[in-house]
Amino acid sequence: MSKRVRTAVFPVAGLGTRFLPATKAMPKEMLTVVDRPLIQYAVDEAREAGIEHFVFVTGRNKGVIEDHFDRQFELETTLETRGKNQALEELRKDLPSAGRTSFTRQQEPLGLGHAVWCARDIVGDNPFALLLPDMLFKGEPGVLKQMMDAYEERGGNVIAVEEVPESEISSYGVVARGDGPDSGFPITGMVEKPKREEAPSNLIISGRYILQPELFSLLADQPRGAGGEIQLTDAMQTLMHNQRFTGVKYRGQSFDCGSKIGFLTANVVYALERDDIRPGFVRELRKLDLEDQL
Ligand code: UTP
């Protein structure tokens, strides 16, 4: 039987240059979709999948993430005095239990692979989940839970994948697919940002992983790859020589909230789904007479 996955790593040390100036002094992982920060959605998804320990790889300007996952006594007291019990309840519900968060620092943003490597001492010799919080997934059950089901069956490493139009392929890590159902099929190869004609499929690696700890020693010696960054895909490619990789073409919808279009779309979709927001939001949208502009 495969070792249980109890720990999740959240890399939040990137510069978020696509979202400047919003991310000049604030991490992009604190951008809100309706009223919840992106990092909270990722933590909720991990919790639903059974994760017990939450490891954040932070960088400069990221102290606010640590504060977000801490109690705010002054705020709580004020809410209590004002009888805002529901808001108080919600805040408490979002918090991981005491002692179940860890924070480590990536002093320089040398790439995703390097950020993951910074979590090695905390994760230790255990399998772990990796969630990129700027990728927001709407799935039932959540995408990491769907991947855990594949992990229980097949063990090894599991990667969430999704289809993109051919014209977009060269911006992503792309996998080669072996035979098997969408819920868990062998990955037979992967390549970071391939030329369109060299891409092995239209399935891209989309921001959720279950990985084995042997990856850390590969990351330690990983030279810089595409964009001068230490690339996670390059280390996974080497790990593939002696470990199994499974792809899960997840059921659900993704929003790349590291890009402005993805972020704005996510806000519209999530707002329209909220019973408390939808009526007022639709009314305001109608007033804008958007037909002319769409
Ligand atoms: P991205 O490449 O989307 O983030 O990395 P970025 O570099 O911050 O964004 P842009 O392209 O400049 O706008 C995906 C995730 O990996 C983290 C980011 O914080 C994000 O959650 N990351 C990336 C790190 O933690 N460290 C890095 O060196 C790079």
UniProtKB/TrEMBL annotation:
It comes from the Bacteria. One of its GO terms (biological process) is UDP-alpha-D-glucose metabolic process. Keywords: Nucleotidyltransferase, Transferase. Belongs to the UDPGP type 2 family. It comes from Devosia equisanguinis. It catalyses: alpha-D-glucose 1-phosphate + UTP + H(+) = UDP-alpha-D-glucose + diphosphate. Its EC number is 2.7.7.9. GO terms for molecular function: UTP:glucose-1-phosphate uridylyltransferase activity. It is an enzyme of class 2 (transferase). Residues 13-267 form the Nucleotidyl transferase domain. The keyword Mitochondrion does not apply. This is UTP--glucose-1-phosphate uridylyltransferase. The keyword Chaperone does not apply. Signal peptide: none annotated. The gene is gtaB.
